[in-house]
Every structure is written in structure tokens, then in C-alpha cells.
């Protein structure tokens, strides 16, 4: 479960921004939205969902992009650029795109994340020097790196590594390592300035098991869909035979509920190029099966839903954290509400899966659907062009701008009581066009 994510000097977020899934104090109601686990006799709570609002170009997608970028860096194990990727979040592979473009000097980029996995609370912090915006020749270095588990320091890395009290985690660390007084010297000798200690020295020397738990969470549990157009389920099949068709029962049942037009939907693998494509499957009059590319026959909304639904299933089945940019794009609100209700259903969501998404659809501004601490806003300053993120619960319940549970959140949002909304009027532009024409 994701608890908190912080970022600083990432694109429009020049100053530190905190995205929290920890329930705010004195929030009551919708208790199904709150998960609870015991960690060292302490009850750790987390929200099961969150929705992010804000005008276009405010920075909503940058928060999701920052999560995706940290994930890519950890899985890569270094802060060097990754291999060329045909993906929308290029900042995850070309790190010179990350620093805020208004910084006049080199400022560190910070990532910090806290999550629960296997009864352990992990907090990982990474500060890196990437140069200024678009400076791909800068000699990059890790400023500091820190791992804390169950509020106990495991390691603190600057130009050297300082180990915490590993005796508290002796079930994950070999006795020889704990007793070896020269191990810290060996670690520091092998330190590389642009490589993560977490996935290199710590993994190979200190604890492969702890490192694996963290890497597995980022690999399998943190599912970030950075752009609405990038939602796709990547399939890997062992049988490369030409035109092999894979029909999934659950996917097709969901598609028929959604309103599919064809007989079935399936992933068809072409043996010539090895690519797997989503197709609509039909039976001809002579009972032969024919596949038509879904892009040709189905609507964009249908295709997007079909690509999204397996990710929802995976999140619910594994207890993952699903983070989606523009969750509502081209999908009917009733289908979206049904998916949200699955995450809010304690009988179904037994493994504590989480859903986080940004949207422009105001229907989710409803006290009967989301708690105040689940509703986030991102706003960009028109003068500084810097973004900030805050929660509806930050307004409190008293005063002129106080927010109470029974308030009409949608109405108040559109009268700019919560900010993160922009007055847009194109009329003067068209008036000028018509004036010039006259």
C-alpha cells in the first residue's frame, strides 16, 4: 500500500510537494476507504483511493509522471538515461527533462516514497543532481539516498554509506554481515556516484531479500499509467505461432457488460513481427473465425476500457496500487463508478488495492463517493508557473472557506472556493478574428 509520495524540483513542482494517502485526522464516514495494518504494534492507516483535480497544464500529470520516473530509476538501478523508449513519459528515460526549467542553478531533484509491503513499512528517499533543464552533458551524481524500515534507519548514503542497526533485521541479513566490522569499508570502496546503493551494493552485500521486496513492489504492485493513450496490457506468450488467438473469459464478460459489439475480443499474435494486437473476433457464415483489428471496428472508449480492465483485475488480485492519468477519458461514468465501487467494496478488495487517478469530471466531487482527504487539487501559479498540491481536508471545517461533509463539493469547486480551476473565455479571440475579417 502506498502511504506517501514526495517530490521536489520535478518539472512544475519546484518546491517540495506531498501526495498523501494517509487519512487526515478528524475525518469521519466512508470507513471502507480506510485500510489498516499493524506494524510493530502500531496501526498504520492508508486510503484506498484518491482523485486529483485541476485545470489543464496545472501539473496533475506531473505528479503521476514523478511516480513513474522514480519507479523507472529504481528498476534501472542508476540515474543514467535509459534506453530509447516509445513511451509518453520521456522524463523517465531522459532525466535532463526533469529539473524545473526556471531554476537558474543546479538544484537537487528529490523523490521520497513510503509504502507497506509484507508487514513492513518502507521509506525510501533519493536526492539526485541532474544539472539544469535539458543539460544532458551534466556529470550526474546521487546527493544522498536513505532507506528506513519500520522507522529504523537501514542505511544513509551520501559520499559514503552509513549503516543502521541491522541487528533489528537479522532475519533478513546474514550473521556474517552484522558481525563484520569491515563491511562498511568494503561497501564504500564499491560505491558508484550515479548508481543506486539500494539496488546494487545493498542488494548484493547486505540483504538481497529486503532489496527484492522493494524491487518487487515497484515492479508488480505500483502500476502507473502515465498517459491516457498509453493504457495497454502488454502480453507475453510462450507460443509464437502465427495468428495465435488468446481469448480471455473475464475480459470478454466485462466487455459484454460494457457493451461490446463483436462476438469476442482477443489478443492475436502475429508470428511475423511477434507483436500482439487487440482484435475483434467474428464467425463468418461458414463458421470460420476471422479477426479484425479492434482499432478498426471498436470505439476508442471500448478499446481503452478493455486495456484498462485487466489492470484493475491485477490490482484487486494482488493488492496493487493503480495510478492512472485521465481515468475517465472516453469511458462512460457508470462504468467508472462501478470500478471505483469495486475498490471501495471490503468484500471484494480484500488485498487492499488502491486506485489513484486524475480527472476533469466533476461527478466524483461527491461526499458520498470520496472522503475530503481523498480529493486532491493541483494548482499552478500564473506568475511563477509553479504547481502545488493540496487536499480538500486541508481547508478544515470552520471559517469562510471551511469544508463540511454535507457541502456541495461540485458547486463550491465551480465557484472557485477550492481553487485549482481556471476561468477560460475564448470569445475575445474569436471577436478579434471576426473583426479582422470585417
TrEMBL record:
<dbReference type="GO" id="GO:0005524">
    <property type="term" value="F:ATP binding"/>
</dbReference>
<dbReference type="InterPro" id="IPR027417">
    <property type="entry name" value="P-loop_NTPase"/>
</dbReference>
<feature type="domain" description="ATPase AAA-type core">
    <location>
        <begin position="51"/>
        <end position="365"/>
    </location>
</feature>
<dbReference type="Pfam" id="PF13304">
    <property type="entry name" value="AAA_21"/>
</dbReference>
<dbReference type="GO" id="GO:0016887">
    <property type="term" value="F:ATP hydrolysis activity"/>
</dbReference>
<protein>
    <recommendedName>
        <fullName>ATPase AAA-type core domain-containing protein</fullName>
    </recommendedName>
</protein>
<dbReference type="InterPro" id="IPR003959">
    <property type="entry name" value="ATPase_AAA_core"/>
</dbReference>
Amino acid at each position: 500500500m502506498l502511504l506517501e509520495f514526495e517530490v521536489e524540483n520535478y518539472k512544475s513542482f519546484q518546491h517540495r510537494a506531498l501526495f498523501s494517502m494517509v487519512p487526515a485526522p478528524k475525518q469521519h464516514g466512508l470507513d471502507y476507504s480506510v485500510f489498516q495494518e499493524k506494524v510493530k504494534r502500531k496501526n498504520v492507516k492508508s486510503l484506498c483511493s484518491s482523485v486529483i483535480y485541476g485545470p489543464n497544464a496545472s501539473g496533475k500529470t506531473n505528479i503521476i509522471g514523478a511516480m513513474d520516473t522514480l519507479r523507472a530509476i529504481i528498476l534501472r538501478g542508476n540515474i543514467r538515461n535509459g534506453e530509447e523508449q516509445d513511451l509518453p513519459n520521456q522524463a523517465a528515460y531522459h532525466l535532463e527533462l526533469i529539473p524545473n526549467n526556471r531554476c537558474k542553478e543546479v538544484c537537487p531533484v528529490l523523490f521520497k516514497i513510503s509504502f507497506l509491503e509484507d508487514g513492513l513499512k518502507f521509506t525510501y528517499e533519493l536526492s539526485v543532481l541532474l544539472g539544469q533543464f535539458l543539460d544532458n552533458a551534466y556529470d550526474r551524481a546521487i546527493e544522498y539516498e536513505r532507506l528506513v524500515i519500520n522507522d529504523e534507519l537501514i542505511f544513509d548514503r551520501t559520499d559514503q554509506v552509513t549503516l543502521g542497526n541491522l541487528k533489528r533485521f537479522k532475519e533478513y541479513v546474514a550473521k556474517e554481515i552484522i558481525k563484520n566490522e569491515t563491511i562498511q569499508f568494503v561497501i564504500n570502496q564499491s560505491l558508484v556516484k550515479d548508481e543506486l546503493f539500494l539496488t546494487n551494493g545493498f542488494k548484493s552485500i547486505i540483504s538481497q531479500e529486503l532489496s527484492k521486496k522493494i524491487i518487487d513492489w515497484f515492479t508488480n504492485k505500483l502500476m502507473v499509467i502515465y498517459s491516457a493513450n498509453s493504457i495497454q496490457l502488454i502480453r507475453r506468450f510462450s507460443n509464437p505461432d502465427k495468428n495465435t488467438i488468446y481469448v480471455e473469459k473475464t475480459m470478454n464478460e466485462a466487455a459484454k457488460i460494457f457493451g461490446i459489439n463483436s462476438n469476442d475480443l482477443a489478443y492475436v499474435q502475429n508470428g511475423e513481427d511477434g507483436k500482439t494486437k487487440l482484435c475483434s473476433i467474428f464467425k463468418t457464415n461458414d463458421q470460420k473465425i476471422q479477426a479484425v483489428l479492434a482499432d478498426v471496428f471498436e470505439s476508442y472508449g471500448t478499446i481503452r476500457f478493455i486495456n484498462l480492465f485487466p489492470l484493475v483485475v491485477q490490482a484487486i488480485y494482488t493488492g496493487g496500487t493503480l495510478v492512472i492519468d485521465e481515468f475517465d477519458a472516453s469511458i462512460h461514468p457508470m462504468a467508472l463508478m462501478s470500478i471505483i465501487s469495486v475498490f471501495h467494496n471490503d468484500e471484494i478488495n480484500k488485498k487492499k488495492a488502491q486506485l489513484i487517478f486524475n480527472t476533469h469530471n466533476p461527478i466524483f466531487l461527491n461526499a458520498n463517493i470520496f472522503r475530503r482527504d481523498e480529493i486532491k487539487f493541483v494548482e499552478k501559479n500564473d506568475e511563477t508557473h509553479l504547481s502545488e498540491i493540496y487536499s480538500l481536508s486541508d481547508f478544515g471545517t470552520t471559517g469562510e472557506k471551511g469544508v463540511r461533509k454535507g457541502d456541495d463539493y461540485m458547486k463550491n469547486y465551480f465557484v472557485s472556493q477550492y481553487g485549482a480551476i481556471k476561468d477560460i473565455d475564448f470569445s475575445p479571440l474569436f471577436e478579434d478574428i471576426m473583426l479582422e475579417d470585417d
